[in-house]
Amino acid sequence: MIVRNRQFAGMQSFRDREFARNIIGKLKAEYPSREELADEENLHPRVLGLITQARGHGFTTDRELRAFIALDLLVAEKWVEFPRISEILNNSSLDEASRLEYVLFNLEEEEWVAIRQWSRTRVLADGS
Fold first, then answer.
1. Taking the mean position of all CA atoms in its chain, how far away is CA 60?
2. Nearest-angstrom CA–CA distance, 31 and 12
3. CB–CB of 51/88 below 8 Å?
4. Are the CB atoms for 48 and 16 separated by under 8 Å?
5. What separation in angstroms does the CA of 22 have from each of 17, 29, 126?
6. With contact defined as beta carbons under 8 Å apart, do 123 and 78 qualify?
7. Which of 73, 19, 64 is CA-nearest to residue 46?
8. Are 78 and 119 in contact (CB under 8 A)?
9. Would you give per-residue pLDDT tens digits along the chain (128 residues)?
10. Contact (CB, 8 A) for 72 and 79
11. How many angstroms separate the Cα of 93 from the Cα of each of 67, 87, 99, 105?
C-alpha cells in the first residue's frame, strides 16, 4: 500500500489530535487543581502547537513529547527559550533523547526556580 504525503499528513494530524486529547486527560486526572489545565478552549490548540515545537527540537517518541508538553504546561511556559535550556536543546553533540534527559535529570532546583521566574516575566511581557 502506498501512502501519499497528503494521506500521511492527515493520519499524523489525526494521531496528534488523539495524542493531545490523551495527554490533556492524563494531566487533568493527575493534577486536577492546576489552573494551567482549566482553559478548555485554548488548551488543545496549545498542546498541538507544543507537539509541533517538540518535533522541531527532534523529539519524536511519545515519552519525549509527553515530557516536553508537561514541562511547558506544568513547570514553565516558554521554558525552551531560557538561555541555558536553549543551549542544551541546540547542543548537536548530544542526541535528542540525551538533550531531554539532561534537562529533566541534571538541572538543579535553583535552575528550575530561575526558569519559572524568567518564564513568568516573558509570558507577562508577551501578553500571553
1. 11
2. 28
3. no
4. yes
5. 9, 11, 29
6. yes
7. 73
8. yes
9. 565 766 656 677 889 999 999 999 999 999 999 988 988 788 999 999 999 999 999 999 999 999 999 999 999 998 999 999 999 999 989 898 899 999 999 999 999 999 999 999 988 888 75
10. yes
11. 21, 11, 9, 18
Q: In angstroms, rounded to a whole number, what is the distance separating the alpha carbons of residues 59 and 80?
A: 13
- Using left for φ > 0, alpha for ψ between -120 and 50, and beta otherwise, residue 78 falls in left
- Cell 534537562 sits at which residue? 103
> If you count them, how many residues does the chain have?
128
- Provide the whole-model pTM: 0.83
Distance of CA 121 to CAs 2, 57, 110, 127, Å? 49, 23, 17, 10
